Amino acid sequence: MNKGNIWALLPLILFVVIYFAGSYMLGDFYALPVLVVFMISLFIAFLQFPKKPFKEKLSSFAKGAGDENILIMILIFLLAGAFGELSKNIGAISSTINFALTYIPPQFIISGLFLVSCFISTSLGTSVGTIVALAPIAVGLEENIPGIMAIALAAVIGGSMFGDNLSFISDTTIAATRTQGVGMKEKFKVNFKMVLPVAILVMIIYAILGFQMLQNAQDLNVGTYEIIKILPYVLVFVLALIGLNVIWTLGIGIICAALIGLFTGSIDFLAILKSINDGFAGMFELSILCLVIGGVVGIIRMNGGIDYLLHAVTKRINSKKRAELSIAFLVSLVNLAIANNTITIVIVGPIAKDISDENQLDGSRVASILDTISCFIQGLVPYGAQILAAMAAANMLLSEKNQPLMSPLDVMQYLYYPVLMGIVAFLFILFRKEKKINPAV
């Protein structure tokens, strides 16, 4: 195996140092623009290894940024943003909130929101799409129950990672199963047994916390709702549940929301177009960030940085347990570096397959480890798309009210599902009983 070059990782190392040091000094993770810091990392990558032609570096950047998974993800971002903005403007969010507050006791709103996020993300196959759709609802609860926004957003993020990890149409599931050459059902069976107890435990935790936080919230001023305005969410859920591609699902959801808005007189045709455009615009920064990250990783891969990570992690494997731990550790490192779980699996998947073949590992276990560990890390990194999308929804409302912006740390303290999922995944590896094997020569 190519030993690679540790210095090729310098752009990502400096990104982590600049981002965390700057955020710490400013006292706010949201205050330092992630895109600006990653652009600095990009130019560091351009300046590195001056003997290599700049044209070659640009080509590697373009190939990385133009990765199929990144472009499809950006399309999903845009469609999800349009669906979320249009649904909000026709009154779907307020109707959903009021409907929930009418029939669910306030003490169980948080656990209920987590459960809904689990179902929708499993149906949509995208954590970011789920967060974009449901984060405004979580933020809207603040109007009725002050102080609930942070834990409500955490419930949405946690539930979205549940579906991102399990859904048959999730990019991470597709990447994990394809790289390991196993069927989705086999991976699902292993994965489901691992995370279902965690999801149940988290629901109980949120129910207890909700009861403690909201025990005095008995007399809420609940507004009216229109069932027809909740239909876009129901339709998107059902279409995804029957297996329709997430792009078509969101496209049909946008059309449904537009028709309902026209039918109820909540919005006119020009306002529909403006809502869709505003939804697109809300995802522009996130989309550009994904392109830049992919491009930086492309240059790092060309310079041998990814090869170095692979070699450093896999050189001391002598048992199946260590083989699985090395895969989990490698996924964690790469995901922390690039903050994208799908791209992480695409990068690590092939070498994980080599490790699996050399050490006679169960492919469905390896696929499950790839997906679960990547979702565990992705659900916690403050510069990942999931938390950034949730922060965007929260801070949009707070800025409109001239209130202090929310930091990712405000939400991360309530992210029980990703943490417990990661702990269970590592226990899943550590407590397997396997005899030592001879490392491949």
Shape: globular
Distance from N terminus to C terminus (CA atoms, Å) equals 12 Å
Q: Low-confidence parts lasting 5 or more residues at pLDDT below 50?
A: none
The largest pleated sheet is described as: none
**What is the total number of structural domains?**
1
Number of strands: 0
Order of helices and strands: HHHHHHHHHHHHHHHHHHHHH
Q: What is the typical, i.e. mean, pLDDT?
A: 83
Rg (C-alpha, Å):
22 Å
Q: What portion of the residues fall into strands of 2 or more residues?
A: under 5%
Helix content: over 70%
Q: DSSP helix count?
A: 21
Structural class: mainly alpha
Question: Could you characterize what this model shows?
Answer:
The protein is mainly α and 441 residues long. The protein has one domain (6-430). Helices cover 76% and strands 0% of the residues. It has 21 helices and no strands. It has helices spanning 10-26, 34-47, 54-65, 68-90, 92-103, 109-124, 127-144, 149-166, 171-180, 184-214, 231-241, 246-264, 269-282, 284-302, 305-314, 320-338, 341-358, 363-378, 385-400, 408-412, 416-430. Helix 5 (92-103) crosses helix 7 (127-144) and helix 6 runs antiparallel to helix 10. The protein is globular and about 65 Å long.
Quick structural summary:
It contains 21 helices and no strands. With 441 residues, the protein is an all-alpha fold. The chain has one domain.
